[in-house]
Specification:
The protein is α+β, with helices and mostly antiparallel strands. The protein has two helices and eight strands; from the N terminus they run H-E-E-E-E-E-E-E-E-H. Keywords: Membrane, Signal, Transmembrane, Transmembrane helix.
Length: 185
């Protein structure tokens, strides 16, 4: 009885690990985005495929002369849990959440927008920032139509082959029985 409970526990743990490993596919990539020179939010059209959860950003390069950089994440379909995050020179190489418990329902895409809060101090013609963006990558669910067709078609084909084999077996047996039996007067 005890071994049965232990087996069930290990079986549940096994399926838990399988389900967790299927849903989480984290991706980190180095990004560099340019900033607008008029102090407004930049128009970055790089969309990242995203399944939901947390989005983190590690600022590695601050725009030249800037002391405060504002970064926000914008999903293609709107969505929530995106707030403006403030980065300063003290936040260089520090991992910060820029999206927390984000739920991506319909369009699983997001992009980064940024602007410098103190734009008058910028001392280069093309300001930009760089960093490492980490998020859970969206993985398309498998198309199960082919597997479903096989799961339905194979038993039907097996049944048809079995019926045909049974009928042929009976006919062959009757044929040999009629050949081997003595003829009646």
């Amino acid at each position: 009885m005890t071994s049965n409970k232990i087996f069930k526990t290990y079986l549940l743990i096994f399926f838990l690990f399988i389900s967790l490993s299927y849903h989480v596919d984290a991706k980190c990539e180095e990004i560099t985005n340019g900033l607008r020179t008029d102090g407004n939010w930049n128009d970055n059209d790089n969309f990242y495929s995203f399944s939901g959860g947390n989005i983190t950003f590690t600022l590695t390069d601050m725009p030249c002369g800037a002391s405060t950089l504002l970064i926000q994440v914008v999903s293609q379909s709107g969505g929530g849990n995106f707030n403006v995050r403030t980065f300063t020179n003290n936040d260089l190489n520090v991992v910060k959440n820029i999206g927390v418990n984000v739920i991506a329902d319909k369009q699983r895409l997001f992009r980064i927008q940024a602007k410098v809060d103190d734009f008058v101090n910028i001392n280069c013609p093309n300001p930009s920032f760089s960093g490492e963006l980490c998020y859970s990558k969206y993985v398309e669910p498998p198309d199960c139509k082919k597997e479903r067709d096989i799961a339905i078609g194979v038993p039907i084909a097996t049944a048809i082959i079995g019926v045909i084999g049974g009928i042929l077996g009976v006919l062959i047996k009757q044929y040999f029985d009629s050949r081997n039996s003595p003829s009646t007067p």
